[in-house]
Amino acid sequence: MKPRLFIAAAVIGILTGVDDYIYAYGVARLPVSTVALIIASQLVFTAVFAFVLVKQKFTSYSINAVFLLTMGAGVLGLNTSSDRPKNESYREYVLGFVMTVGAAALYGFILPLVELTYKKAKQEISYGLVLEIQAVMCLFATAFSTIGMLVNNDFKVSFLPRSILV
């Protein structure tokens, strides 16, 4: 792997780590049903960024699919009653909502960015090279997440119930 491709894969890996953090924050603040509906908007972000970054052509079928899937998620979202947890403030709920939309948008950006990286690689894309790129991306996403957990002291949390520890 050429150094330029390595750096691109590392940057995408860090973006993936940031996306994972934002997504986890949103999931912690919102009910899973709401998160699932919001994450469905990722399809629209992916389509838009694919059009902008890699010049993906839209067909009537792809436009129809994006429209119908997005509208279906929207209709489901409109039919829900208030789902904010009782112990959560309005500010936390809105922040979780915004973070989840941000996670959908960022991941919708990452997917076409990977394809753009393959196009701009200036070397033959083989199965082995794709695996190397994926390994670098995963390594940097994991490193980002691990550093975040160390800063937040997440490794000191015990997973055993308090009654077992006493």
From TrEMBL:
Localization per record: Membrane
InterPro entries recorded: EmrE-like, PUP_plant
Q: Does the keyword Transit peptide apply?
A: no
Report membrane topology. Answer: Multi-pass membrane protein
Identify the keywords attached in UniProt to this record, alphabetized.
Membrane, Transmembrane, Transmembrane helix, Transport
A GO CC term assigned to this protein in UniProt? membrane
Q: A GO molecular-function term, please?
A: purine nucleobase transmembrane transporter activity
Provide the family line: Belongs to the purine permeases (TC 2.A.7.14) family.
Transmembrane region positions? 34-54, 61-81, 93-114, 126-151
Q: Which SUPFAM superfamilies match?
A: Multidrug resistance efflux transporter EmrE (SSF103481)
Q: What is this protein called?
A: Uncharacterized protein
